[in-house]
Protein 1
Amino acid sequence: MMKYDFAQVEKKWQDIWERDNTFAATDDYTKPKFYPLVEFPYPSGQGLHVGHPRSYTALDIVARKRRMQGYNVLYTMGWDAFGLPTENFAIKNHIHPEIVTKNNVANFKHQLKSLGLSFDWTREINTTDPDYYRWTQWIFLQLFKHGLAYKKEMSVNWCTSCKCVLANEEVVNGVCERCGGEVVHKVKNQWMLGITQYAQRLIDDLDSVDYIERVKTSQINWIGRSTGAEIDFATTAGDVLTVFSTRPDTLYGATYMVIAPEHPYVEKWAGQITNLEEVHAYQQEAARKSDFERAEMNKEKTGVRIAGVNGINPVTGGEIPIFISDYVLMTYGTGAIMAVPGHDERDWEFAKKFDLPIIEVVAGGNVAEAAFTDCDTGILVNSGILNGLSVEEAKQKMIQWLAENGKGREKVNYKLRDWVFSRQRYWGEPIPIIHCPHCGMVAVPEEQLPLRLPEVESYEPTDNGESPLAAIEDWVNTPCPVCGAPAKRETDTMPQWAGSSWYYLRYCDPHNNKELASKEALDYWAPVDWYNGGMEHTTLHLLYSRFWHKFLYDIGVVSTPEPYAKRTSHGMILGENGEKMSKSRGNVVNPDDIVKEYGADTLRLYEMFIGDFEKSATWNASAIKGCKRFLDRLWNLMEIAAEGEGYSAGLESSFHKTVKKVTEDIEAMKFNTAIAAMMTLLNEIYDAGSITTGEFKTLLLLANPFAPHLTEEVWEQMGFAGQISGQTWPGYDPAKCVDSTVEIVVQIAGKIKARLQVPADIAAPEAIALAKADPAVAELIAGKQIVKEIYVPGKLVNIVCKG
RNA sequence: GCCGCUGUGGUGAAAUCGGCAGACACACGGGACUUAAAAUCCCGAGGUAGCAAUACCGUACGGGUUCAAGUCCCGUCAGCGGCACCA
């Protein structure tokens, strides 16, 4: 018997699959479809990481199995290739980002092909391809036309190191998610996308999709819906200061107010404020602080009283002071609050520091010691019309009172903010807008798309915060498409999240040059049936693409309100030391090395066997050998396989059970136990010492999604008809998955005392009688009173005695 | 601080509904083959005591429910992830 030469065999089959387009999806829209999706990678210079194949192999297994079950499967790959690392590499090495991208893609593609993934490579896409980003720009223009893309002067997160604006989602712990650089606030004119208009639908429609629970929870928390009321406070300046509160029931306990440092009323009240200098000084100090500093210093409350203007509590009529403090954010609610120190921890802290009165309006705690925030048990006191009510009742009554008296209204707020969409960088999709002195902002006519990136001398971002595109005069200057007057192009580009917000739609019809995809293709393939990806994309990519999809649904481009029917997530693969793999920690495992030493099938099998797919797993170089051994033993079955379609050596029910287990486990993402079941069966076959060719075929079919190269080769060498990837997935007979006799245990008061072989369908009285007849059991129960007898079918008999 | 998840041998982990804890592997020990090693094959193994049959203990910790708890309930501790002055 020839030893299994994985290198030669894997190359052979990869070439055949490529030559024959074996895994291409067909455009036969009458067949049942299955659309699995994995997140397309950013083709970095470092190449593939062993984390990538975990997700890709998992859905490859599902895809291969579903193809064998008769589905038309669309499983494909592409490149999310715009982005900063490529641009930075280009700057440093003076190579065009397009060339860098091309090289990286070639490398990634070569690596992926060596893993035997059954992608339909005829549908490969690249977000930096003008034929692709043409449609990214087209979607942007539709958003613009519907008022969902707009420009706004606002305070944005500015990474001092990348010299670029960041979305809120890209700021982590006050620093830049990508480079760890300091993030400061900068007031800039930015493109924004109105994702907040979709906030409620993004929450509600989670009920209609099959996402793992933690993804749903994270998205709901991120969107951060709060219900409460807006309340209008008259001020002694003669105007009205509106606040948002989730606790309108505590209005009688509002003893002061606070506005955010950026609140416009400071300027409005400038004439009345008697300590304006002090207030301005505080504003400047707050503006200077970075997010990181604000987060660091959040233990200690700071603030300045606005002297000369007071608020008037609408229910008590009493005058209360107004403060300016950075614990109130301009970006949430109205940028102003009513402070109820008795029942809000932050207000309590602030009141203590500034020696402000604390009034108890909800009984149940001790407001001298701490804020009492329990909404379930508290009863309203010192609150006029609300006295004696529960918190919930009081909220309703107060909202009603406010509405009736014109002092406020019910209100829902979201933490989610509109998406800061512009970047001042080169390597992104140009925003297709022209600024005309007469017509204002004008869309580039759709027939002129794609608006291509111009050639530039330098990709270096500028210190004044302008994109490198701003320096290309002959590109920037262009006539207005409406009036023909000299006008200027928008020079900001889109963030990396743009291209990835709709790529799954392009796979459906990737070569269409008339629309982003044909309606027929979209109606057939969408939504994605199963999307697997990392948890890190939950509040970024996943939320953004749901938003874009809903918009495309609203304008009739797609026919489903959600892009992904099902979302699952894989755990990270950690280095051998249990830490996250990184160059600096020196614990990175390169998949190429594993493929070279053990072969792709072994790598695939190992990554699926490593543990619970959803949990993070620690790489273990020696554990790979077990998977290699399994494949070698599978290969060596060729030596003992004997002609015959039936079952040999009493393995029939084992085969049926294994087919059932593997079939079900693949769909449940329990790849590790599916593999264990095949290992068990293989051990049984070797124990039996023989296998028929019929049995061998079944085992090869089960193993094929996991180890496609080896199983193809064995199939061929055994002379079985056709290629294994074109065969039908094996079925099983549920009746044959159960044994005719089973071993049950006999317990006395829960402790095992005997084991019996009984018919599987034995009735309870017979089973108990048999148990009592067992000599060991009989001796133990002799002369005792039996209190209880339990029979669990196929499992055990438990006898409970007294005395 | 809030929300979510997790805690099982030397290691990675299994264990539909509450029903034989540790499947399947790795590493380890012993043996076979070999001049030798690798590879391969066979055997062993949760802990304690015992030559053994066997007994007792055992799923982070403390309680509870149950004939029966890794699984359910209450409390505690530890770790991981997310959010974090969002009124």
Note: The mean pLDDT of chain A is 90.
Protein 2
Amino acid sequence: MPELEKNYDAPTVEGKWYREWLDKKLFHAEARRGGNPFTILMPPPNVTGILHMGHALNVTIQDILIRWRRMEGRNVLWMPGTDHAGIATQNVVERALRKEGKTRNDLGREAFLKKVWEWREQYGNTILQQLKKLGVSCDWDRLRFTMDEGLSGAVTEVFIRLYDKKLIYRGNYIINWCPRCHTALSDEESVHVDTRGKLYYVRYPLREDSGKHLVVATTRPETMLGDVAVAVNPGDERYRALIGKKLVLPVAEREIPVIADDFVDPEFGTGAVKVTPAHDPNDFAIGNRHGLQPLDIMRPDGKMNENAGQYAGADRFDCRRRLVEQLDAEGLLEKIEDHQHAVGHCYRCDTVVEPRLSLQWFVKMKPLAAPALEAVRSGKIEFIPERWNGVYLDWMENIRDWCISRQIWWGHRIPVFYCGACGNEWAARGAPGACPKCKSGNIRQDEDVLDTWFSSWLWPFSTFGWPEQNPDLKLYYPTDTLVTASEIIFFWVARMIMAGFEFMGELPFRKVYIHGTVRDNTGRKMSKSLGNSIDPQAIIKDFSADALRFSLMMVTATGQDVFLSNDKFEIGRNFLTKLWNAARFIQMSGKQIDDASPDAAGPEALALPMINDSGKGRAGQLVPPFVPVGQGFPALSLTPDEQFILARLDGTIAACAENLGKYRFNDYAKCVYDFVWHQFCDWHIEYVKLPLGSGDEARRRESLRIMHHVFAHILKLLHPLAPFVTEELWHKMGYGGEDETIQNAPWPVPLGCEQLARLGVDQRAVAYVEMKHELIRVCRNLRTDCDISSSAGVRYIIRPENDEAAAQLSADRDSIKALLRAEAFEVDRAAAPQKALNALSPLGAVFIPIEGLVDVEREIKKHADQLAKLAGSLAAIERKLNNADFVGKAPPEVVALQQERRREALAQSEKIRRVIDLLSGFHPG
RNA sequence: GGGCGGUUAGCUCAACUGGCAGAGCGCCACCCUUACACGGUGGAUGUUACAGGUUCAAAUCCUGUACCGCCCACCA
């Protein structure tokens, strides 16, 4: 057994065990293994990505689920991969080119794409390396990329199927256009940001009577150059007479009609709306209703085009400023008001999005949404926490068609071809040589590529080789739980569900666990631009990956946002150091035995489990308890404290399973934390120092064996949270052979009271130890109250409560004495509280018989205060019990509980009163 | 404009189906007790945002208010 270093040096991904996991393909799932599959898809990070806390939170949760299920013996597959992130990646590469003074057009499509692939070769794996440092145990051999050949094939296949079903169509519509990225965006990619803008009131003179004018209000005055009409509500009395009249559009000096449309809200602005069909979705609709020809006044780069007359070439915002000045100078600007409204921004570059009329490809979503809606409505797919069901359903019910074409180069090119000869348009796999209709070779492919999400939405099955049917796809689809953030419910989750039903005929996953957003401690979202992000790499360096994972889970309540600051990670670091030191303690104790009895089997043998968790036979089944260990050490009966720790361990095992099953990762982490620190370390290790230090060899070995049993279980319970250190300790403690990993150690199963009893765990002993702990706390308080230094030897006398307590205490005297570091601990049924400090415990009254140390007045006051407090709570209990409604309506067990409390409170008061009487007797007066 | 979440100890947050409001950090006192000072022992700290209501019983359920934060939305 390798000795543990005194200073805890956190194991890392560079360490021995992780490398071996990878070498041995421990994470590799195989269909032929069969069994009960458990699949998780890692949300593929962008190739351009670098690891941030959101990733860390996301993958830690998944890794916990995966390692837990792996230890349970499931056929586990965790699919990793990266996303080509069309616009984002293209932007990154273009930025690099710009530094060389070039644009993508200088290179041309082919050469540019070559550059992007080179970039991805060089930097695309950064995030994967970073993920490994966190200990994520995904199936690295299956790594996929959305631009891989297989996945690209799936994209083409899906496009063609939808195209043939007429669910994909091409048309001229108003889309969100990013003038910086030069591409269309989907509605989801345009993020609305509340902005303090201006509302400009502009006078449009009447043609017939230039002295009169109609005032329209607009937030984007530059678009007036594309106005083709002004609309008013047909019911609006103010304007009824103007309907059908002509106005002169200022600056452009064009004639435009006044039209009537129900869309116009008479309450807003002036009740008259300028109609600009080429630059506003509502106006586009109005224009269509009235047969008006749209007039495009802008270029793709956001500068005005030749239709803008004198403003041609001006940037849209520059144009706005100058145009307003001109209007003002001409007396056509009525007023400017402040106006709060939501403005769309490009989700990749934050540029203000321009609604723009253009020819794009769309997916008709309503038919796809139907089964996906049903799946969540019926509960076949569940969101956790539940409230996201509503968000999802709401979006799906109001789903709009999806704009999937992008005017960039990096991505899956739209597999549609056009014939220059006959005008034929068709979708095809591969590169056709000629038009299928007229056989002309004069064909060209559509220039656009598909939205990145058009490949991501196929991830649950494209990663398994779809459309090819194979054993992997059959076994591992559908997956189990999708773990992700709320930001991509619409982008990704909803679309995967739709694709799953459409192309696989089945849901892609059963559960969607939505975790919170990682924020800094002032509640702001962590982001590079704010400079408030905590770099997981730095945390790993300073605190270890295990500490990062453990701390994250400790502070993350289910589905709530996480507020982080550096010091939060001390929780995990301190805890894991504590664990390490507990291991050192056990190991040092083990060595003592080696030294003392050289013929005994080594400490490794001590780790023999008492309970059948070997993975063979029925889980949790008992093997004959207390298999003799080594030679000449017969099994002994368990001490009360050992029974106690085994009972608590069993409770912890049960609690872990329950919390994991409910995705309550913080409660899971907390219950292990509490058990390790406050049960095992605070009490059991302190307790066990006596038997381990005693000369009784058999007792020592037996105590040590229980320690190892409990500690091995702790490591297992902790492994999903802290994989590195638990693996390290698993081996260093000798629990696993050289080639065995804790990942394959069977997950502990709770035994329950009955089976525990067969092991020799008596609930009465468990109850006694609980009271013993309370007694020890009472004694320590007593000593503190009396200002006796903890190093001074103290003599305690206890007068036991009853015969049972007397027997238990007498048998356990030495242990209590040791835990108190007392000079003496005497059990005396006849002890009378002489001139002594005294206190009450569940097992009996305790005294420290030291004359002269007693401040009688203070003692009386102390007890009187206690009595008063007790009287208060007693009164509250009485009030309840005297309330006929309470007794009549509350459940019987709640009433019984109150009665029990009253009984206890009364008994306690009586005892305190007696003590006060006694103390008063000492009173000098 | 619609929807969702939050408001609990000095700070950051828990408290699953109503039944004695908890943890970590910080704070105070004492302690280098041979696993651990990234530690040990003990301690202090709450009108659960506010106002009503339901109930024997409310941090928890209902109604409303205030503030903070998200998401969605074509009122120019």
Note: Chain A has a mean pLDDT of 85.
Protein 3
Amino acid sequence: MFRVRLGDELEIEEEKIYATWLENHCFTFSRDQKYDENFIFVLPPPNANGELHLGHSFGYTIMDCIGRFQRQLGKNVLLLPGKDHAGIQTQVIFEKLLRDQGIDTTTLTREELYKRCYEFCIDRANYMRSQEKSLGLGADWNFELFTLDPRVSEIVLDTFIKLYEQGYAYRAERIVNWSIVSNTSISDIEVEHVEKPGTLFFIVYPWSDDIELEHEGDNYFDLEPDDVLNDAFLVKKLMNPPKRALIKGRKCVLHPVVKKLKSEEFLVYLPEVDLHKGITVATTRPETMLGDTAVAVNPDDVRYKNLIGREVTVPCINRKVSIIASPLVDPTYGTGALKVTPAHDFKDFEIAKQKNLQIVQVIGKDGLITQNGGKYCGLTIQQARQAVINDLKEEGLLVDTKEIVHFIPVSERAKDVIEPLVTDQWWIKVESLKEEALRRVKNKNELEVFPEEFRSLIIQWFERLEDWNVSRQLWWGHRIPAWYQNGDVISVSREVPDNASQDPDTFDTWFSSGQWAYSTLVAHNLLDLTACENWSHNYPTHLMVMGRDILFFWACRMILLGLYRTNRIPFKKLYFHGLILDEKGQKMSKSRGNGIEPKEVQSKYGTDVLRLSLLNGFTPGRDIRFGFSKCEPWSRFLNKLYNCAKFIKLNSGPETATNIIHPLCAELIRSTRTKCEEYKKGFEIFELSSVLDNIYTFFWDTFCDWYIEISKVLLKTPFALEQKTALKSAFEAILFMFHPFAPFVTEYLHTNFLGEKMLLAKKRFSDLTCYKLEVANSDYDMLSLFEIVRLLRRFKQFSTDQVDFFVEKSFNYEDDIVASLSRCNKCQSSDCNVEILVRTKKVFIKIRDIPVLKKELQKRLDAVEAQLERIEKLLKSDFSSKAPYEVVLKEKQKYEQLKIEKHELENQFASISGK
RNA sequence: GGGUGUUUAGCUCAGUUGGUUAGAGCGCCAGCCUUACAAGCUGGAGGUCGUAGGUUCGAAUCCUGCAACACCCACCA
């Protein structure tokens, strides 16, 4: 926990303040209230295997800020905290930890590993909870849950059992993304594509039988390409395009399919291929040829059309395979001939399914070549690749290589290269589930998304969603409740059948976190799943907040599973925040070394500065840049707040006025109330950043720079008591409004400087003094006071001599206030040499420095004339007839006012001329 | 290849449904130790709102093209 230093002498201990909040049950949720009185939101559970980073701090700050505001409204708020077991990620981290400690993981039983890892996670969770508390997170800790908590797992398993019973969960052998390092399958969404250099090998698969090739003459027309598409040339559409062309020195043939690019049509010319020895394929992974069961070409590809059905021999393994046609083959890429390895490539698997090809697995789950790989059996992928290349070279079948840059799939968690493999897995059939999800997500009444643009991302994701592989070959996670006898599933149930063995696999982490929105509520008896079928009442939660990076991982899955089990989207409002970038706009990461730890900021500036600088200037869904330079202004702000509190304390006593009569004091109360209302409105639509901006300006510019300065005069008059009351109640409201943003310092000042007995964290709108005071009506024009002071300040600034003034019709002490703020002296009107109309008031000024006066008057006159000219032009145009009446009227009124001002100024010029 | 977002002052960003003089913080210039605060106060300079068109009486704001940057998705071997 952190101490924050304010000014020279004040230190605030955040930990003590947090303890006080807990002691006073500031964050305690009471169960017995109605939906409308509650505000419940389930917090995203961070992975319990490390510590919180700045991104977590950002999210929590937003959530806590909203939670505190909802309490101010009088709501019964529950922020429900938790931690995620994070399957594969934790297993990777934990196994490495054991290895680093010299422990051989293979010597431990599964139960032992699980137990130790559970303890590890609980330990991390404890640490992370202390971090969450240090941020000021006002969660009800009695409700905290872990995703592997028995109360939660029970629900997760039940969901799977239900899915199985209703035919949504099934087992199938299919090609999946396989991580050799983690020894498990992973879902598409956990695969990243990383750009890396690689080599494209051109390999000849010789004809199995003798073949006679047709020869079609040598007429080639010279053509200039307009563009290049992979290995083919694009030429703008011609009237009678030649069948054969020489482009950039290469013999090409015309492809019968026209390519459309940006609404323009192009002819495609494919480079001719050498077919004498055999058919040439291109691949970056030569070792997979051991599992080739076909060579595929595009059915429209004229180069190969006549060869479909012929046989070639796959070198190294000497397997005879046919040339088949598939529209999935891109004729412009490589040679246009694709080696088909169904067991180790997604597209090839698809082709094999359509064409009923044999599937030969040559790479095992351990990453070694299988027995199907013949003499290469037992080699690693890299070794096999080298061996195959050497053998091909020897036989003269490797005809070309090309260095390319391509995207290779890697595991998001372990970062190792993904090998597509055919394995037996559990799947969730998503077809009908996603239809329902799409229908509901498109309905804006059912789900509000902040920012709204993100709704289309959710829709697109669902549209593309295919069956979900939910089994993982890991020991860390919810073990799948499927039971086998002789390799067959005999039951899926929480009951243990006799003589059966349990599926060794666990669920994909997202299968459990996808249920978090309701599993947490059910675990705490806030929701009854059995009542969900035909219910009409509201879903218990109101809001879900998360980073935009887990939109697909988490938000979509919660919608999918939430609809399945509760018949509702488990949140009414879904709010996404952006990610934290460094000052240069780059992602923070350990490898770049540009990350900032939350505690670095907290110990240097205090938690409130961290919160304020994160919340300042952000827009939902948009990433923000963060660096220490963002903290400085907020550090100054807290110092200002502290000094302001000091001033208020110095100028308040036990007595208070109940009736505010002086127009300036009344005006202060009124504008404070207005700010409170704006604050409320802004928060209700989650405009946290603009709310902060608004109250910042109110505090600094309006309250400190004007009202406190004004008070320095009024405090010496008989209006002192009501001035003190007004200042104190306005400052109370200011602390109240800043409290969700900067809870620690505001709480401290509230108790120690305002001397309030009630905790600020417990204060509601209805407790604010500014709403209770009786305030006299007045039509006082605050702006004219501001204008007069600013005018005099400018004269004073530029003038070499002193400036005196007299304000017409000034009310109680107004002239003293003007004198104090402008540092000019008041005098009698008769002593003055110039009079200026400021809004509704006339100010008489005595100024000896005539050139300065003239210059200033001229500046005003120029501005007025420019305005007049502008409006005249405007009124002469179609504006008067076509613009709405109110808008025209506003301009006309402005025009009249300006004309009077101009007249006055001209008179002044006349009176000083010659002086 | 598909999609989304961004482009406003020297820097970091606001700018709500189009309304006519575009805002803040930091930085810059000038002047102030005015007894809450020099981490402050006062005054000031600085922007043809990426570009080319269009709609409109009126565009930073709406539409279209273009450019640059960023991110996400995708099974080009």
Note: The first helix of chain A runs from residue 14 to 23.
Protein 4
Amino acid sequence: MSEIIDRNNNPGRVSDAMTRRMPAYYRRLLELENLGFLVISSKELARRMGLTDSQIRHDFNAFGGFGRRGRGYNVELLRKAIGDILDINREHNLIIIGIGNMGKALAQYKGFSEHSFKLMALFDANSELVGKRFGGARVYAINGLAKYLQKNPTDIAVICTPAAGAQELVEPLAAGGVKGIWNFAAVDLQAPDSILVNNVHLTDSLMMLAFRMHEKQVLEEDKSWISE
Amino acid sequence: MSEIIDRNNNPGRVSDAMTRRMPAYYRRLLELENLGFLVISSKELARRMGLTDSQIRHDFNAFGGFGRRGRGYNVELLRKAIGDILDINREHNLIIIGIGNMGKALAQYKGFSEHSFKLMALFDANSELVGKRFGGARVYAINGLAKYLQKNPTDIAVICTPAAGAQELVEPLAAGGVKGIWNFAAVDLQAPDSILVNNVHLTDSLMMLAFRMHEKQVLEEDKSWISE
DNA sequence: TAGATTGTTAATCGATTAACAATC
DNA sequence: TAGATTGTTAATCGATTAACAATC
């Protein structure tokens, strides 16, 4: 019977635009909770987040509706509900591959463990790094990866290798049962259906900033020319 | 006369969706150039990038149209044109504030200089770091920031401090003539019109990956339940 | 009760895709 | 010339915003 299910019809699939807003909602609600807010209206949250109240109600309603007409949203309830949807409460096992500048920085970053991302092991091709520890995890040789994954179920692999070596990691990761790749290498990785990839592309992010700055500057120059 | 110009009407302003694709176009065209491609069709580029040929023609046409009917796009010309639009050819002076794990990693990252981002100085509140060097730049005390900016025109400030201290940096940066902030602290920074902010939010990116993995898993469970 | 604010549908807006004439 | 492929307009699709009845 499975063949009649339309793979593109993903019922209830959340749009990319909304997926991007969800962690921001979570972060902001956690902040409000810590500030002692019990309840917040879509209007006030919209003001703080730079969104429209209409969009916020639309989004929250898609989560199942944790508001009360005339009152607003219960901050703690809503934050927990979004946490459940984001799957933040389950523990995710992480490994990092490529222990250069970025790999080391991510290994030592304390924030992940707050959201139940648990760093289990590090891998690198450089034998001089093997055995060292960063952020509480040990560096293993990259050729031990397949064997490691056999013994240690792993949810997410963080790829911090040079671009050239990144793609060839995907196949053994998928074979080893890894379900997600958080990719910092400067390539768009091709992956099988069994594994999800989130390409970070830090350089792209910096280029976008430079572009927006340039665009703004050109606009302001045009404006001053007109008003002369 | 300037008051009659509608600030929201930004003529020729590029949409966010397209801004996000531009660095990917640049990266891919550079790759094709290095592989020896002289020309590429929208159809072939679409296949490689996972986009539609129609969207690619639409986007490239907005840049001014570097294609030839019947032939395709000149890879080098197009790459250079996108580079100009992204303002990659002009040198951008960078400083990094907050020399923790991420600040150090970014300081030592070699890739930025390839795209004419030039690291000039580092700042930190920890006096033990002052005078040390990372990625060829020296660490200065944070209370010397305003004076530094007076003497050294700076395009972009990279904020890698803890979330709590990040917002209070914005005012002195704006006052010092900085035009863009690349923010790695886990807050959405509020900034005046004179300065553009690009919030990176790495934890959000990891949360989005976990969410998508969870969503996919739930979908697959539903499917196997239906086909039983 | 009156005021506030959600839930939800309809209207609008914007981005993507389809189509095809122009032309290499 | 015939085939390929762009440039560009129109059609479609999806996301955001507006509106307002429901209800706290």
Note: The beta strands of chain B are 39-40, 67-68, 72-74, 92-97, 117-124, 133-134, 137-141, 156-159, 180-183, 196-199.
